[in-house]
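@channel sequence for tomorrow's demo:
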Amino acid sequence: MSRKILVTISDHPGKSVLINEICAAWTENDRIYSLSKSKKEPVIENISVPMEAVTIPTGKNEAEIWEIFDTIYAIFQEEDEVTIDISSCPRIVEMLISSLLQYAKFLKNIRVKGIYCGRTGHSGKHAHINLTAFSDIQDWSIAANDFVNFGNSKKLNNLTKAHLAPILKASHGHNEIAERLRELNNHIENLSLNIITNRGRSLMEGHNSHQILEILDHLEQHLIEPLNPILFKIKTSVREIHKGKNDKKNMLSAVQWCIDKLLIQEGFTLLQEGIISHFLEDYNNKIKRDFASAYLNHRFREDFNTGLFSEVEMAVTNELQGYFETLPHINEWSHLFAQITNIRNDINHGGMTDSAIQSNRFEIKLKELYEKTKELLKLNPVDNS
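structure tokens (generated this afternoon):
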């Protein structure tokens, strides 16, 4: 069971107004930690939550700064719900908090419930400024980075669900912006999964990428300003894939996405299957796909027409063979396709083939073969979509 903790860092132990505001309903499972350079025990009234006094140095040198970092980090337990009060803490601790919390989010899976900084106004009244949004922005940035640079939507998916759940619950599912964000999250997750599982038909249909772009266009006008550049990065990344709805070019454009994100196995599969789809009007016809693959792989074999297909299949594909024979640069396409097939087989067979190549060559070969594909597409722009 996760616990709630309040970490108050101050030269005046036990003076945090937040203790009474936030911890009143907490249980004995929860904790308050009062950190200061003073060794005096804090005195808190009307609160039954256990409190621990922790002494920290002033941070006058690098060794003391690291000691402060280690001391606060050691307080956190796995999956703690953390509230931080830096109202009266040393300036060096204010600078540490952002990095420290990100570090603990990653290593101990803590959840930051609040970051507060108290200030006294001109009237003498003390108020707390909620800085939690700045921690949230860091989370969104890291999650968006995972998706844009690595094609992994997991953090973005979890973060969105965590933020939207209380909003949708309170509004009974009628908060329009939250609902649109949930839709966006679902489409991003589906697009990511479609690429890493090589769902060519879904990519060519382009439904998820189209919806992502459409929703982002709408949301930019309704979110806090710092989020817009993050969403713009996501939009730019998705736009590189999306050439249109029901467009075969989506499948080949996704290869560049795979190259950029080091999705090597996925890239070779989408490249090979994308080339087959490029040449076929009825690209969902299995017999035609099998024929196109065999033709491009083996057209130079003397027994090509006799040993690869049944009489029924040959009756379906005779016309298709004639079509391929008349295509410009068919020899180059065939040599290219055979190279892609050999490397894809090498990967799929776990490098257990006699012609297995070194692991550091796959990225280079994918880039080379994709560039050659783009060159041939310009010379042979068949489009049956």
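heads up for whoever presents: DSSP finds 16 helices and six strands in the chain.
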